[in-house]
């Protein structure tokens, strides 16, 4: 749907504007002693995985309003991620949720992904829904269930997910548990956590040597009295007990309002136990809104800690993924906006004057420390992000090109108006 001629025409039309904007920013950054080419290389290398379940219209328990043209198969989901990568230059990976997206032919799927310049990020298990032909129900839990037979079914599913990931070249398993309780007395907290740990130990033992297990946490939903893994501390506890291949995964929406997520990031990196990041935005909880749409300064502060931790700890390389559900927007437009917001926050954090910040911290100069951070945050780095995107073969303004080429209209014509993406 997007030809090289389309990209060239759009970029050529904006060439003079982009040059003026970039020259102005580059001069300012150079005056501050920042090497612009170094920034561009880091932005070029920063790639964000797209989850296979985010390509269709999301929803709430009250309704869903699909626009049509949604991907009907894993092949079409890969095509859509390839389209996003073509526009943004920053989405070179897809993250699959099993059993929503089980490849019928792993080699054929890998070849298709390779044709779009894509690889496979972490694979995700699903024990929060009952699956067709399953012998048991996860209504009262999966890895924590009081019935050993249910736990064994959930363990076997996670092992199967690993097998699918191996066939696709993935290197990590993400485990998110809906396990918990809705009423006091429903669970013995200690025993539920103990059973979960024992189940995870069996899955961990099945991991290939070069794989990681990413343990996600969430304070509530779908259970509203307790969750077995409710916070980063419990995730870190489990990961520490399992071994060095087990790490914590932070989802921005999986925190209570006003939680200091940047501090959590800093502590986990200090412990060298941060494994991955799921990007979205929220006002109240797991709202799954567009990344950076509500709290761009918090996103910047999180990246500030990520960069500082990368420079000063031995934390392993991180997996980056967008995890949002799009109910009102075209999901592809939403993902493009999220990628842009993430790259902007990353670029802003890269230009923080860390030597001056460290000096201000040593001197307890609170006002100066705030000024250093806010100077970076208030810098319009969009020309820098655009320059990196152009270097990666993308377009100056992805959403505008998406609309000008009427991509959603073309997808509807190709796939129909009543298509609903698998897994939602």
What tags apply to this protein structure?
alpha/beta; three-stranded parallel sheet; 16 helices; Xyl_isomerase-like_sf; manganese; isomerase; L-rhamnose_isomerase; metal-binding
Could you walk me through the main structural features you see in this protein, from its secondary elements to its overall organization?
- There is one protein chain.
- The relative contact order is 0.16.
- It is built from 16 helices and 14 strands.
- Helix 4 crosses helix 11, helix 6 (148-168) runs parallel beside helix 7 and helix 12 runs antiparallel to helix 13.
- The protein has 424 residues and is of the alpha/beta class.
- The model has no long low-confidence stretch (mean pLDDT 96).
- It is globular.
- The protein has helices at 4-13, 15-31, 36-45, 74-88, 106-115, 148-168, 189-206, 232-242, 261-270, 296-312, 331-350, 354-362, 366-377, 382-391, 398-404, 407-415; strands at 49-51, 59-60, 63-64, 93-95, 97-98, 119-120, 123-125, 172-175, 180-181, 212-216, 226-227, 246-251, 274-279, 319-322.
- Strands 5-7-8-10-12-13-14 form a seven-stranded parallel beta sheet. A three-stranded parallel beta sheet has the order 1-4-6, covered by helices on one side. A two-stranded antiparallel ribbon has the order 2-3.
- Helix 10 (296-312) links the parallel strand 13 and strand 14.
